[in-house]
Amino acid sequence: MGRVSGKVAIVTGAARGLGEADARLLAKEGARVILTDISPKVMETAAQIEGAIGVVQDVTSPEGWAEVIALAEAKFGRLDVLVNNAGIVDFTTIEESTLENFRRVYAISAEGTFLGCQAAIPLMKKSGGGSIINMSSVASLTAYPIVCSYAAAKGAVRSMSRNIAVYCQEQGYNIRVNAILPGIIASDMTAAAAEEVKRRGLDVPVADPAKAPKVGQPEDIANLVLYLASDESRMVNATEIIIDDAVTAK
Ligand SMILES: NC(=O)c1ccc[n+]([C@@H]2O[C@H](COP(=O)([O-])OP(=O)(O)OC[C@H]3O[C@@H](n4cnc5c(N)ncnc54)[C@H](O)[C@@H]3O)[C@@H](O)[C@H]2O)c1
User: Ligand 1 center to residue 147 CA distance, Å?
Assistant: First the structure.
C-alpha cells in the first residue's frame, strides 16, 4: 500500500521540474495521476509514469479546466488531490514591467490557481473531500525587486489558499487547502533566474544557486506535496509551509 493509494491527483505544470517530480512521487505512492501542462512535452512525461494520463492544458482557460475535471471523473470517477503548480516568472522590476507582463504572470499563477480550485471543488465534494496544494514562493515573503509581478502573483496564491480553506471547512466539504513556499530548487526556472541575477550583477542568494547555502531538488518539494496529499496531514489546513533551508529566516 502506498501513502496515497486509491487517490486520484491532478498536477499542473507537470511536464518538467517540480510538477513532474510531484507527479512521479504521487504515482509511486499509489495515486492515479493526471499530469497537465501547456507544453506538449507533458505527454512524454506522462507516458513514463505507469497508469498516468497526460493532458495539454493552459491553466488560464476555464474551458480547459472543465475538460480536465471531466476527464478525471470519466476515467477515475473521483478527485482527491489537486496540485496547482504551473507558473512562470518574469524578471522585471516595477519600473521595467508592463501591464501585459504583469497580467501574464498573474494569470498563470494566481488566476490559474483560482480557476483550478473552483473547477476541482465540486468533484472533490462528490468524492468525500480532498487536498488542494498551491505552489507559492518565498518571493512572496522577501522582496526581490526583479520579480515584481511574480511576487504579487505568489502572494495572491497564499492569501487565496487560506481563504478557500476556511470556506471549504465552513461548508463541511472536508477539503483542505495549503500553500507551499519553496526557496531555491534546481529547475529550468531557477537556471533562468541565476542567469538573470548574473547578467544584472546582483547579490540575491535565493535566486543564485552559487550563493544559496543549499540548492533543493524537485524531490524535496515532492516529499512535502506527498505528505499534504496523504491523510497523514489531515490536521494541516489553511497553512503555508516554507521549504527554503532557513534562507528567509535570516
Ligand atoms: N524552482 C524554484 O526554485 C521555485 C521556487 C519557488 C516557487 N516555485 C514555483 O514552483 C512551480 C514550478 O516551478 P519549476 O521551477 O518547476 O518551473 P518550470 O518552469 O520548470 O516548470 C513550470 C511548468 O509550468 C508550465 N506552464 C507555464 N505556463 C503554463 C500554463 N499557462 N498552463 C499550464 N502550464 C504552464 C511550463 O510549461 C512548465 O512545464 C512554479 O509555480 C514556480 O513559481 C519554484
Answer: 14
In a domain? residue 200: no
Of residues 181, 235, 226, the one with CA closest to residue 81: 226
List the residue whose alpha carbon is closest to atom 40 of ligand 1: 87
The pLDDT tens digits for 175-212 are 999 999 999 999 999 999 889 988 999 887 656 666 66
d(CA 215, CA 176): 29
d(C-alpha 100, C-alpha 225), whole Å: 32
* Coil, helix or strand at residue 133: strand
> Does 202 map to a domain?
no
What is the C-alpha separation between 42 and 12, in angstroms, rounded?
10
Nearest CA to ligand 1 atom 36: 13
Where does the chain show beta strands of DSSP type E?
Answer: 8-12, 32-37, 53-56, 81-84, 130-135, 175-182, 240-243
Find the CATH number of the domain harbouring 126. 3.40.50.720
- Grid coordinates belonging to 209: 544557486
Query: Any idea which residues carry the catalytic annotation?
Result: 150
| pTM score of the predicted model | 0.98
Does 201 map to a domain?
no
Cα-based distances in Å from 123 to 23, 130, 165, 177, 250: 20, 9, 16, 15, 42
65-118, pLDDT tens digit by residue? 999 999 999 999 999 999 999 999 999 999 999 999 999 999 999 999 999 999
Q: Which of 173, 178, 164 is nearest to 235 (CA)?
A: 178
